[in-house]
């Protein structure tokens, strides 16, 4: 089964969900390490998406100036 491609909004939602569970102390010690790693992966994904989007927008704007 093909896995659905993660979107920026899905990543942000997952980060918020994990952080809410951490703040409400809903995660046990066994889950905490895995969730922290997952948040780290999601943050890297979001940063990459933002950087790529910024580069694409700058390219389009530069092309419009020509």
From TrEMBL:
<dbReference type="GO" id="GO:0006308">
    <property type="term" value="P:DNA catabolic process"/>
</dbReference>
<keyword id="KW-0378">Hydrolase</keyword>
<protein>
    <recommendedName>
        <fullName>Exodeoxyribonuclease VII small subunit</fullName>
        <ecNumber>3.1.11.6</ecNumber>
    </recommendedName>
</protein>
<keyword id="KW-0963">Cytoplasm</keyword>
<keyword id="KW-0175">Coiled coil</keyword>
<dbReference type="GO" id="GO:0008855">
    <property type="term" value="F:exodeoxyribonuclease VII activity"/>
</dbReference>
<dbReference type="Pfam" id="PF02609">
    <property type="entry name" value="Exonuc_VII_S"/>
</dbReference>
<comment type="similarity">
    <text>Belongs to the XseB family.</text>
</comment>
<dbReference type="GO" id="GO:0009318">
    <property type="term" value="C:exodeoxyribonuclease VII complex"/>
</dbReference>
<feature type="coiled-coil region">
    <location>
        <begin position="5"/>
        <end position="63"/>
    </location>
</feature>
<dbReference type="InterPro" id="IPR037004">
    <property type="entry name" value="Exonuc_VII_ssu_sf"/>
</dbReference>
<keyword id="KW-0540">Nuclease</keyword>
<keyword id="KW-0269">Exonuclease</keyword>
<dbReference type="InterPro" id="IPR003761">
    <property type="entry name" value="Exonuc_VII_S"/>
</dbReference>
